[in-house]
Amino acid sequence: MDVGIVAQRGNNRAAYLAGDLRERLREVDVRVRLDEATAAELDAEGVPVDRMDAPDLVVSIGGDGTFLFAARGAGGTPVLGVNLGEVGFLNAVPPDEAVEAVLAEVEAFREGEMRVREAPRLAATCEGWESPHAVNEIVVQGERRGHGGGAGVEVRVDGSLYSGGHADGVLVATPTGSTAYNLSERGPLVHPGVDGLVVNEMCATGGMPPLFVAPDVTVGVTLTDAAEAVIISDGRRPHTVEVPTEVVVERTGPPVRVAGPSSDFFEALKKLE
């Protein structure tokens, strides 16, 4: 069996735990792959994170941001999150239980009994370009936000016009992402057991309220009246396009596969207060 480990960059605690976990896994005859940043901390050889789809399990050690980083490279490989952050919607395992939790997943894998939960991903397409796949949200916005910024916006759901006017941008979020950027833009919280997408205009002038739609719809966002449009996936890798333009956002595969115990959604919410 192969296990990949991705630890939060610049976090000595995460690197120490990664080293301890590596040694324990080797004791039970598991091959361990470290991402390049983690390997550098442990003076070992590493692989690019985008090759973390090769192992049978990936362990993320850090906060939700580290989990997203690991999941981008893991593809359809199950990811187990160890929580060193403050909230931990995606990371259910506390650090003092990390070794035992990972070893339990190794045993389950060897017995053919590993259970995983799936969370959707999103992708944006525009003029032949496709965004990196997002676990939380896709944002389509004007060149800059705030006074004097934004763009003219039209939002269509499966081709039907939902809203139009001026806004900083539009955010399309998964249930996983409802607790992230969407929440800061006054979007609704969505329980992870509910399937669908949130469509949320950002600082709209006379726009419509956030809309919760079926998981398989196509959301079209047309931007006008701006120097350019910016498409952002999970807060990373902004891609700039000329306007007017239409950006299409919809679900894509493979889904994120989450291994290990589930976090308590309502308990995690209390940490947002």
TrEMBL record:
Annotated NAD(+) binding sites: D64, G65, N136, E137, H166, D168, T179, A180, Y181, N182, L183, S184
InterPro entries hit by this protein: ATP-NAD_kinase_N (IPR017438), ATP-NAD_kinase_PpnK-typ_C (IPR017437), NAD/diacylglycerol_kinase_sf (IPR016064), NADK (IPR002504)
Cofactors demanded by this protein: a divalent metal cation
Organism domain of life: Archaea
Entry annotation: catalytic residues: D64
GO molecular function, one term: metal ion binding
Subcellular location: Cytoplasm
SUPFAM superfamilies assigned: NAD kinase/diacylglycerol kinase-like
Catalytic reactions of this protein: NAD(+) + ATP = ADP + NADP(+) + H(+)
EC top class, as a word: transferase
EC numbers for this chain: 2.7.1.23
Pfam families on file: NAD_kinase (PF01513), NAD_kinase_C (PF20143)
Gene Ontology cellular component terms for the protein in this record: cytoplasm
Keyword field: ATP-binding, Cytoplasm, Kinase, NAD, NADP, Nucleotide-binding, Transferase
GO BP: any one term: NADP+ biosynthetic process
Family: Belongs to the NAD kinase family.
Entry function: Involved in the regulation of the intracellular balance of NAD and NADP, and is a key enzyme in the biosynthesis of NADP. Catalyzes specifically the phosphorylation on 2'-hydroxyl of the adenosine moiety of NAD to yield NADP.
The protein's name: NAD kinase
Organism whose genome encodes this protein: Halorarum salinum
